[in-house]
C-alpha cells in the first residue's frame, strides 16, 4: 500500500474533496505543502473516507485494513465493497483474486512454498489495466489460504463469491476438508470451474461431496473424468449454464434430471433413440421447462437428422452452427 502521505487526494472527485475539506481545518494548506508527511484520514467523515477508498486499489485496501483494529473497522464500513469481484482458486498454487468496481486494477494473493518469494509484488500493465500479484510464503499454504479467504470475505462483506476454480487432483486427500471449509464460510458461488490434470485419478467421491455441499448460482463447467457410470452427485438445477465436457456418466435418466437454461454435453452415452424421445418430451413441454439451448458434441448432421430428427419437425438454419426444433409453445434452438 502507498504511504498515507501518498494517498491520491487530488484524484478524488470534487464532492469528495469538499468532504475532505470539511474534515480538516487546514486541508488547503496541507495539500499545497509537499513537505507534509501526515494525512489524518481517520479524522474525516465516513463519506470522505469512502471516496478515498474508491480511489484505492484492492491491495491498498487490504493493507490499510491490517494497520490496526480501527482501520479494519473503518474498512468494513465501506458500503460499495459488495460490488467487488472475488475469485478463489484451489490448485498446486492457491490464490485469491480481487477486482475493484471499475475493473482497472486487480490483485492476486498467491500462496507459495518458495520462501524467497515472500512479500514479492509483481505488477503488469496491459491496455490501461493493472494486475498486481502479491506472494505469501507459508509452510502450510492451504491453511494460510483458508485464513486469507476468511479475511477477504470479512473485509469485503461477501457471502457469495463470483468464481471458484478447483483442480480436484491437486490435493486429493484434502479436498473434503477444503469443500467443508468453503461450505462453512460462504453462502454460494456464482460460477464454478472444476478440472483435473491426471485422468487416472479417481475424484468421483470428491465431486459428489462438492455437488452435495456447494451451492452454485449461475454456471458449472466440469472437465472431470468420472469413473463410475452410476455416479450419484446432485446436478444443480436452475443454472444459467451447465457444461459437462466428459459426460460419459450422463445417461438418459440423468439427462431428465438436468434443468438449466443452457446445457452443453460432450462425449455423452445417450443413444439416438433416447435423444429422439428427449426432444419430443421437450417440445411437448413435459420436461426441462427452463432449457433454452442444448449443445452436443460434434455429430454428423445427416446422421443426426436421419436417426434423431426423422419424425420431429425441424428446420436446418446452418449446416455448421445449429439445428432448430420449432414448436408453438417452446421455440428454443438445439445447438
Automatic annotation (TrEMBL):
F-box domain ranges (all copies): 38-84
InterPro entries found in the cross-reference section: F-box_dom, F-box_Sdz-33
Pfam family, one: FBA_2
PROSITE patterns: FBOX (PS50181)
Superkingdom in the source lineage: Eukaryota
PANTHER family: F-BOX ASSOCIATED DOMAIN-CONTAINING PROTEIN-RELATED (PTHR21503:SF53), F-BOX-CONTAINING HYPOTHETICAL PROTEIN C.ELEGANS (PTHR21503)
Protein name per the record: F-box domain-containing protein
Organism: Caenorhabditis remanei (Caenorhabditis vulgaris)
Amino acid at each position: 500500500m502507498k504511504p498515507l502521505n501518498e494517498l491520491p487526494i487530488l484524484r478524488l472527485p470534487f464532492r469528495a474533496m469538499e468532504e475532505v475539506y470539511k474534515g480538516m481545518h487546514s486541508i488547503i494548506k496541507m495539500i499545497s505543502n509537499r513537505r507534509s508527511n501526515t494525512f489524518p484520514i481517520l479524522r474525516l467523515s465516513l463519506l470522505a473516507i469512502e471516496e478515498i477508498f474508491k480511489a484505492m486499489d484492492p491491495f491498498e485496501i487490504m493493507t490499510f485494513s491490517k494497520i490496526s483494529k480501527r482501520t479494519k473497522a473503518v474498512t468494513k464500513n465501506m458500503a460499495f465493497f459488495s460490488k467487488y469481484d472475488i475469485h478463489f482458486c484451489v490448485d498446486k498454487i492457491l490464490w485469491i483474486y480481487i477486482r475493484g468496481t471499475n475493473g482497472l486494477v486487480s490483485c492476486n494473493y498467491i500462496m507459495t512454498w518458495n520462501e524467497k518469494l515472500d512479500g514479492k509484488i509483481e505488477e503488469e500493465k496491459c491496455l490501461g489495466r493493472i494486475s498486481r500479484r502479491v506472494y505469501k510464503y507459508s509452510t502450510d499454504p492451504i491453511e494460510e489460504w483458508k485464513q486469507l479467504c476468511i479475511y477477504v470475505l470479512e473485509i469485503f462483506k461477501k457471502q457469495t463469491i463470483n468464481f471458484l476454480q478447483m483442480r480436484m487432483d491437486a490435493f486429493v486427500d484434502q479436498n473434503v476438508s477444503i469443500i467443508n471449509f468453503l461450505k462453512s464460510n460462504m453462502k454460494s458461488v456464482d460460477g464454478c470451474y472444476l478440472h483435473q490434470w491426471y485422468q487416472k485419478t479417481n475424484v468421483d467421491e470428491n465431486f459428489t461431496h462438492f455437488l452435495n455441499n456447494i451451492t452454485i448460482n449461475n454456471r458449472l463447467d466440469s472437465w472431470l473424468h468420472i469413473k463410475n457410470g452410476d455416479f450419484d452427485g446432485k446436478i444443480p438445477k436452475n443454472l444459467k449454464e451447465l457444461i459437462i465436457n466428459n459426460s460419459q456418466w450422463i445417461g438418459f435418466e440423468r439427462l431428465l434430471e438436468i434443468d438449466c437454461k443452457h446445457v452443453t454435453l460432450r462425449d455423452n452415452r445417450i443413444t439416438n433413440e433416447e435423444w429422439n424421445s428427449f426432444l419430443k418430451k421437450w417440445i411437448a413441454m413435459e420436461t426441462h421447462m427452463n432449457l433454452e439451448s442444448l449443445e452436443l458434441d460434434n455429430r454428423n448432421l445427416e446422421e443426426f437428422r436421419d436417426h434423431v430428427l426423422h419424425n420431429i419437425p425441424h428446420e436446418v438454419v446452418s449446416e455448421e452452427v445449429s439445428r432448430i426444433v420449432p414448436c408453438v409453445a417452446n421455440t428454443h434452438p438445439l445447438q
